[in-house]
Amino acid sequence: MSTTLAFLVNALIVIATVAAMEGVAWAAHKYVMHGFGWGWHKSHHEPREGVFERNDLYALLFAGIAIALIYAFRNGGALLWVGVGMTVYGFLYFFVHDGITHQRWPFRYVPRNGYLKRLVQAHRLHHAVDGKEGCVSFGFIYAPPPADLKAKLKKLHGGSLKHNEAAE
Predict the structure, then answer these.
(1) How would you class 84 by CB atoms within 10 Å of its CB: exposed for 0-12, middle for 13-18, buried for 19 or more?
(2) What are the mean pLDDT values of the chain's consecutive 10-residue runs (168 residues total)?
(3) How far apart are CA 32 and CA 12, in angstroms?
């Protein structure tokens, strides 16, 4: 395979992995973190004390899988690039979810419009529910329109949310 073709194939694997990771993350968030893995994730739905929360163990778990793939296939192969794609997704998650959405950085950026504002609103609506049941918006990079999420929450909870201001 030519160098150019190999580069394109590897780049496509990375891009496809980043896209697929949003689906994997959505399913893990909905069925693991809000299911049997609530013990770790619960800390994310409570006020944080300190720099880290128990939920950060999920990031370490996914990073460990990516590192293992990159190391095991460091001499080449598609799974090397899957590991790179998982790492790219992890950086996007860290930047968008931890940084912009939850303001876990030493500086603050509050998006006033566009995609990032929609993402922040969707995640606030996810946190508007008390506990693990009846939440909406389980993605980290993709967010459904806030109006759709508000309607779904109203249908599920009849307006009795933990943070009514979260819907703003």
Answers:
(1) buried
(2) 94 98 97 97 92 95 98 96 98 92 86 94 93 93 92 84 50
(3) 28
pTM of the model: 0.89
Transcribe 84-148 into DSSP letters: HHHHHHHHHHIIIIIIIIT--SSS-----SHHHHHHHHHHHHHTTSSSSTT-----SS----HHH
CA 132 distance to own-chain centroid: 16
Q: What pLDDT score does 152 carry?
A: 93
Tell me the CA distances in angstroms from 155 to 135, 149, 150, one per residue in order: 12, 10, 9
